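step 3/5: co-fold with fe (ii) ion
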Amino acid sequence: MPSPLTDEQIRFYRNNGFIVIEGFFDTDELDEWRRCTEEAVAERLGAPVKTLTNQNAPDTFYAQVFTQCLRLADTHEGMRKLIFDPRIGKIGATLAGIDGIRIWHDQALIKPPHGNPTSWHLDDPYWSFDSRDAISMWIALDDATLANGCLWYLPGTHKTARYDNASIAENMAGLFKVYPEWKHIEPVPGPCPAGSIVWHNGLVAHAAGPNMTTRSRRAMTCSFMPDGSTFNGKRNILPEAYYQSLAIGDVLDDPIQTPLVWHKNRT
Ligand SMILES: O=C(O)CCC(=O)C(=O)O
Ligand SMILES: [Fe+2]
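step 4/5: write tokens
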């Protein structure tokens, strides 16, 4: 776990909407993230990651984009400790410039060998709150390279994004039907060694290439919601009963659904 962020890193994140921090975790920490991800995914899916083909509809395009497992901290104690680490929450909050930060959801994203690319998309429009300050972390559990599907960004798009989106399950260029003005922004890749964290704003356009290798590209991610965010009417990952109990505009502060991991007034 590294020392505090530099002003230059914060400035880069706010201007571009993403930042790659290499070597964020040391070898032991990376081993623990790998162990917990492998275990939690295997428990959830009933099969080890290596043997996973794909889940519900293996022949669809999206099933071959990645194996996606949400909210593993709910079911795996080791993962819960990792995801709830207030030091990570503090870094996310500092980059985003917010006073407090809550977990929206974690997810493992494992792009299989020869996996499809991840289409250009924004994250926040999927979620149950609208915020220009939501932030996600993407932990490289394997070296993420141009060959195996590292992330790509359209720098600065978080500043002009609306809450309109294109489906991640569809064409690579679908997002440009919604935002034709972004078509000529040169994409920037974020390759990084295993143990790095890539942080991105929930409204920045991002994608990943195909996996042109014979090995999985494993990532463990978590999306965070600024403390004080309010319900926008979308269900997304909210359990039915909680969803039904909410009115648009309610503050999302349930300690189980959206736990606070760090706040500047609490240590
Ligand atoms: O891992 C990928 O291919 C995409 C990741 C992504 O879209 C995200 O972390 O928000
Ligand atoms: Fe995303």
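step 5/5: annotate
The pocket of fe (ii) ion (ligand 2) is lined by residues 121, 123, 206 (CB under 6 Å).
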